[in-house]
Design brief:
TIM Barrel, single chain, 40% helix, eight-stranded parallel barrel, alpha/beta, 246 residues
Amino acid sequence: MTAMRLLVSVRSVDEALLAARGGADFIDLKEPDRGALGGLPTETIAAIVRALRADGITLPVSATIGDYTPSRLDAILAQVRAVAACGVDYVKVGIEHDAAAPSLLDALAAWQSSSTAAAIVPVFIADRGIAAAHVARACSLGFPALMVDTADKHAGSLFDLLPMDTLRSFVARVRAAQRLAGLAGALRIGDLPRLAELAPDFAGFRSAVSSGHRGGPLDRERLRALAEALRACEVAAHQPAYGDIA
């Protein structure tokens, strides 16, 4: 089983460089004051990508498109194109628990199959639950990764909104489809043992690595502590139990 990797959300060039040098495995571009999918201006996204690559940083970069209702399909696809053109590796699109989700997933898959600019990562918004049928559909459509995240960061962490069994099923279904599974949503260092138990391919953080509050600046020491704690938790989770030792 591969190690759980650390995704850190950033909003500026300075934060992106700090995250890349501080232990992040994925750099995620968003405006954290706007929830799970708060989008940055495309000019900012492009500037961050240029700065990372100019510094020799080759970590994968994702960016959100912002919050759109599922019915605004044309607007969603237009923003996907605009964000992909900024040079990111992945474009994250929110998938609500909504009747329009299947049509949106199909449209995103069709765009992805016709584009070489970037890959799509559907992000299932957990606030009203996630539909197993929508996850199954996404798994069948060729997306490289699927995530679960929360929109209302004041409602608690992902673990306050969804039971472990639901998250375990999500990770298992995505893994069975040979996609990457990601979890995020106001996660804290104290959530690491449960994350290690679920063993997603990556876990996303912002609140835990910010000064004062989620919208505060990225904090170098908090980031370092989180990266170290994640690695330590991974090691502990994979130690054999006493009874397993031959």
